Amino acid sequence: MTTALRIAQGGFGRLALLDMDTPLVSHAHSQCHVIFKASGADSAFYVSEERLPVTDRTAILVNAWEPHYFYSEPDFPRTVYLALYIEPRWLATLHDPLRLAAHPRFFPRPCVQITPRIRKLADDLIGDLMSPIPMKQERLEIALFDLMLAVSEQFSALESIQDLMRPEGLRLPDSRIQRALNHIGDHLGQALDADRLAASAHLSRAQFFVRFRRCTGMTPHVYVNTLRAETACRRLAQADDRTSLGRLAEDLGFPDQGHFTRFIRGQIGVTPGEYRRVVQVY
C-alpha cells in the first residue's frame, strides 16, 4: 500500500513524498509535473505509453495535461518518490519566462539524466521535508523555485520559444469543445458520460472524441477525472472544509464513499482520509 510521508499544498501547487508500491491509472495534472526518486529501488513511470526509468540519476518530466501512469509489479521492492505538481502561474510571478511551463511541449523529453546540482537540490528539499519540524513557507518556496528553475533551464524549451509557437506545438481552439469544457466545470457533481458531453458540444460522439483529443491532448474521461481529483485535493486541504468524505464524494459525482476512495487512490496513490490527515497547507 502506498504511504504519504509528506504532502504540502499552496499557491505553488503541491508536492508529495510518497512511499509507493500500488498502481496509478492513466491520469493528468493541470500543473507541470516532475518526479524524482528519493530512495529505494529503481523503478519506472509511463508517459504517453512510454516506459521511462526512475533512478538516482534521472527525472521524469510531465507536461501540463499530459497523460501518464505508474505500474508496479507484485512484490517489487518499494520506492520513495518526490513528486512536484507546480503551478505555472506561480512560477511566472517569480520568473516571467516560466509562464511557458503551462505549454504542452514545455518539456521536450519526458526522461532526462539530471546534473549533480539538480540532484543536490532535490536531496536538500527531501531532507527538509523529512524533518519533524515543518518547513517555513519562504524556505519551501525558495527551495521549490531553485529546483524548478534548474530543471527548466537545463531541460525545457525555454531557449527555443519559437519552437513552442509552431502550429504543430499548439492545441487549436474550438468553440464547441470549449462549450464542453465549460459544461464539465459546471457539472462535476453530475454524470458526465461521453454522450452527454458530445451533446453539450452539439457534436456526434465520434466527432466529439476526435476534436476533444485534438484540442486537449487527452480523452474526455481523463480530463473529467483530472478536474475531479484536483478539486478533491483542494477541498481536502482546506482547514475550514470539514465536509464528510461521503458528502465530498456526492459533490463530485460519485455514488458512494467507496467509489470515491478507490478513485482518489488510483489518481494520487493515497486515500482521501490519508491525504486530509497528512497535508500541510501553506
From TrEMBL:
<dbReference type="InterPro" id="IPR003313">
    <property type="entry name" value="AraC-bd"/>
</dbReference>
<dbReference type="GO" id="GO:0043565">
    <property type="term" value="F:sequence-specific DNA binding"/>
</dbReference>
<dbReference type="Pfam" id="PF02311">
    <property type="entry name" value="AraC_binding"/>
</dbReference>
<keyword id="KW-0804">Transcription</keyword>
<keyword id="KW-0238">DNA-binding</keyword>
<dbReference type="GO" id="GO:0003700">
    <property type="term" value="F:DNA-binding transcription factor activity"/>
</dbReference>
<dbReference type="Pfam" id="PF12833">
    <property type="entry name" value="HTH_18"/>
</dbReference>
<dbReference type="InterPro" id="IPR018060">
    <property type="entry name" value="HTH_AraC"/>
</dbReference>
<protein>
    <submittedName>
        <fullName>DNA-binding transcriptional regulator AraC</fullName>
    </submittedName>
</protein>
<keyword id="KW-0805">Transcription regulation</keyword>
<dbReference type="InterPro" id="IPR009057">
    <property type="entry name" value="Homeodomain-like_sf"/>
</dbReference>
<dbReference type="InterPro" id="IPR037923">
    <property type="entry name" value="HTH-like"/>
</dbReference>
<feature type="domain" description="HTH araC/xylS-type">
    <location>
        <begin position="178"/>
        <end position="278"/>
    </location>
</feature>
<dbReference type="InterPro" id="IPR050204">
    <property type="entry name" value="AraC_XylS_family_regulators"/>
</dbReference>
